[in-house]
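To close the chapter, one final illustration. This time we ask the reader to focus less on the individual chains and more on the assembly as a whole: which components sit near each other, and how the overall shape emerges from the parts.
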Amino acid sequence: MPELRKDPIIGRWVIISTERGKRPGDFPSVETVTPGGFCPFDAGNEDKTPPEVFAFREPGTEPNTPGWRVRVVPNKFPALRIEGPLIRRGEGVFDKMSGIGAHEVVIENPDHGSALCDLALPQVEEVVRAFIHRIKDLRKDERLRYILVFKNHGEQAGASLEHSHTQIIATPIVPKRVMEELNGARQHYDLKERCIFCDIVLQEMEDGIRLVTENEACVSLTPFASRFPFETWLLPKWHSSRFEDMTDSQITSVADLLLETLLRLRSALNAPPYNFIIHTGPCQDPELPFYHWHIEIIPKLTKIAGFEWGTGFYINPTLPEEAARYLREVSLDAAQAGGDLCPKH
Amino acid sequence: MPELRKDPIIGRWVIISTERGKRPGDFPSVETVTPGGFCPFDAGNEDKTPPEVFAFREPGTEPNTPGWRVRVVPNKFPALRIEGPLIRRGEGVFDKMSGIGAHEVVIENPDHGSALCDLALPQVEEVVRAFIHRIKDLRKDERLRYILVFKNHGEQAGASLEHSHTQIIATPIVPKRVMEELNGARQHYDLKERCIFCDIVLQEMEDGIRLVTENEACVSLTPFASRFPFETWLLPKWHSSRFEDMTDSQITSVADLLLETLLRLRSALNAPPYNFIIHTGPCQDPELPFYHWHIEIIPKLTKIAGFEWGTGFYINPTLPEEAARYLREVSLDAAQAGGDLCPKH
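The assembled structure is written out below.
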């Protein structure tokens, strides 16, 4: 059974995933991508994954058979498990709880070779709809406090399978970084009665120097205090703390701008590995006036790592204003034609 | 001029190091290690680094010539610069300040092929003494609030030169993670009038299950809520918030246990890349009753990265108790003989 443990100094929870139990000889990870091998996410291999919990399918096709366009399955090696009671315990100065939660995989398309940014807009829309569908279903379990949707693209960004997919982890705690964002945003709201993210969006749209691209409902930009070169955030222009509360037209706008932003990053940076993380409000919370959901996209361009983990201190060698300019200057036609640039691992 | 920028949501400062100015074509980094090439840190190449600010040398040898055992030089490509005034400015909702600070390199020995854990105890002691000397010198500059001593060992851990070295960065702000530790530790002290780290050391010495090794003055252990497999901390058994306040015999104990811990990690994990970070109190603060300096050692065994950066949420596939057991079971004789296991990049 996985276990959640709390750091007694700074209060950060960590999943100790004992069932993945790695011993010294298991590093580097056995999960390393093996290109060209068997892929459980390909169409036709539906019986090689746990049974699907959601799919967009062609009419008349059966669950766990081909005919799907987007397919969501439980992770075969879950970091958390849905079964069992949520038990909280102390151990001297330490606190722990049982590793209750969910760990799912959104397979974004049946074609092994297509990355998310190779898909047509309606397909990307369905991927976003699949995220929303799963969030709405998982939040019914009141033990779960947060639902984390994130993507590791490319081996260097932590992907263990090359077939394009996104992961969903639902946890009985709110992750530390999200809690910090909530607290910081609440302070700003208490002081000014305005959402800090709305303030940022307005200022960045006026300034323009850190804007990457925008459409009627969304904007993508390189944050003022970017931790990483070419770090890019996508934010809705309307205020909303809950990703899953979008209307149909808002979903289209988000999918459109996510696709365009990923294409610009791929073209400017020669198809980098990257992570994206959807930052949204805690799943049991109502709409919050002070928080604003957004997507953080982080290309994995630099190797420096443990130092940042250990200190919360970042050195970024690229001016965010220059990164934004490079991303603006990308020719979208060329980017769309650049599908073969996308790394397969 | 480098610039410090503050994230307006969670208050984290980031160094934007414009003089390293990386453009899209510069990734992957040009700083990648080139084994076997020219090394500015080798004995005889003293004129290829900025002039030394400190060294342990053989009697009668001149600065910036061979004859040194440990040598400290300014970083040739500093993330922060010591010259100029500390200017603080706002830019709408954003805050920034000039990138004042210091960035130095501690070259741990003149021999290109020796890692820190290949050195004899007296040499490791001199490395620790060099850290202390530089901290005491840098803290005289009252603009500086924090002095960060950290090591990137191996290319995968962010090292850009293979010759064994440690970096020192002095900043006009306290890094976020350190501030969180200070705040968390202060809360515990306010509640219990005890140092949380002292509590942890006592409990771990009684329990024994997460102990790696100890000597009369120090202990190394795998923390209860380890973020990473085989994450190991070294803590003094005596209470002290300031790394630089050690007595001679305490320096010997720390060097001894650091050396032994690194040897155990090298032997158990087949010479992994790793980072270590010395966590000590802010450099202008007096001795603090609630904080306790320590060294965090993080072997770089897993690839997963951006997700953790983005969320503060960690999944550790190895039980800390099992990691400690593996590290305890290492035969020290075999570990010491294993010098050739140490990766040269």
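The longest strand of chain B covers residues 146-153. Helices of chain B lie at 121-138, 176-192, 196-207, 248-268, 306-311, 320-329, 332-337. With these observations in hand, you are ready for the problems at the end of the chapter.
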